[in-house]
Amino acid sequence: MTTTRYFIAKLALAFGISRKQRRMAEAASESHLLREAEQILGQRVWKNVEGIEELGIEYWNLRRLAGEREKLLAEYSESESVLAEAHDQRAELLGSNTGGQEEFEERRRTLHSELELLARQRDGIVARAREIRRVYDGLKAKLDVLREEQVSEAAVVDTTRSRMEQLRADFDDLKQQRDQIARQIDEGTHEIEGVEKALEEARKTHREEAAEAFQVIGEANRRMSTIKARMGLIDTEMQQLYGEIGRHVSRNVSLSAQCRDAVREHRPMVGVMEALRKSITLNHRLAGL
Q1: Which is it for the CA torsion 28, 34, 36, 39, positive or negative?
Q2: pLDDT tens digit string along 183-224?
Q3: Is residue 191 helix, strand or coil?
Q4: Which letter, b or e, does each residue of 179-196 get, where b requires 16 or more Cβ atoms within 10 Å of its Cβ?
Q5: Which long-range contacts does 279-284 make (Cβ < 8 Å, 24+ apart)?
Q6: Any idea of the CA torsion for 276, 279, 280, 282, to the nearest 10 degrees?
Q7: From 74, 117, 231, 250, which residue has the greatest number of CB atoms within 10 Å?
Q8: Gap between the Cα atoms of 123 and 110, Å rounded
Q9: Residue burial 252-280, b: 16+ Cβ < 10 Å; e: rest
Q10: Residue 288 has pLDDT above 70, yes or no
Q11: Do the beta carbons of residue 227 and residue 75 sit within 8 Å?
């Protein structure tokens, strides 16, 4: 949505031609593109924002997560080598896999996919709870200041306390959801362990002489699955931090020299993001939002 198109649509609106649903759909699509652009920009420039105080928590958390991810990648590569060697040994001994083993492996993959989805849901709940806690702490600070200043605004105090009670209720609800998902993850983990045991038994039954190779494969697969799950959690958290960084530097590029320096090599992308934000605003105006 350019300025010219906005004025044309505004003129059409004056004559009763309303396309509210279209404007809302365009704004939603552009908002999705903007969030993706913020994550991409943050991923490209996060190493440049160490000196920006407002992004200190995001930067140092990313430094920590990046280090953990590198270690996990090294562990994963090592496990891959062990797994490849064990598979070669198994191929020599068995020649082929059995149908029963394939069913166990398929069930294991399904369970891991379900656990990764549950982990993402848990991360989303934790993120929402964190935001509620921040709002709650802000309201608590507000009451403390009013009390120190001896401001007698009973309506404001009552409204604030009522809001804090609602936030506490919302927080407790999220905690229950998190606990429920944690139980589901535990159940899934136990089921995976059962599948792993069953798979190991099937391998031992198929060829007793291949027991050692099968054990190595099982251990490597478990280790790699665990690493992948941990990396999935780390990637999710890193994407959130990338988005925060990309959002901050792109919004403040005209106000902060540090932000300008951080995105110096990506100014065209920042320009596109500014155009997207402007377009979203214009579409919202035309939709009456």
Answers
A1: negative
A2: 888 888 888 888 888 877 776 666 666 667 778 888 899 999
A3: helix
A4: eebeeebeeeeeebeebb
A5: 279/1, 279/2, 279/26, 279/27, 279/30, 280/1, 280/27, 280/30, 280/31, 280/34, 282/1, 282/3, 282/6, 283/1, 283/23, 283/24, 283/26, 283/27, 283/30, 284/23, 284/27
A6: 160
A7: 250
A8: 20
A9: bbeeeebbebbbeebeebbebbeebeebb
A10: no
A11: yes
Of 212, 6, 5, whose CA–CA distance to 89 is shortest? 212
User: Are 238 and 66 spatial neighbours (Cβ–Cβ below 8 Å)?
Assistant: yes
Count of residues for the chain?
289
Query: Please, which residues have CB within 8 angstroms of residue 198's CB and are 6 or more apart in sequence?
Result: 104
Rounded Cα–Cα distance for residues 37 and 250 (Å): 10
Task: Compute the Cα dihedral for 203, 208, 209, 212 and give only its sign.
Answer: positive
Residue written as token pair 């509620």: 132
C-alpha span between 239 and 127 (Å, rounded): 13
Q: Where are the alpha helices (DSSP H) in the chain?
A: 3-14, 20-45, 56-94, 99-148, 154-206, 211-251, 257-262, 267-286
Q: What angle do CA 25, 30, 34 make, to 5 degrees?
A: 150
DSSP 210: G
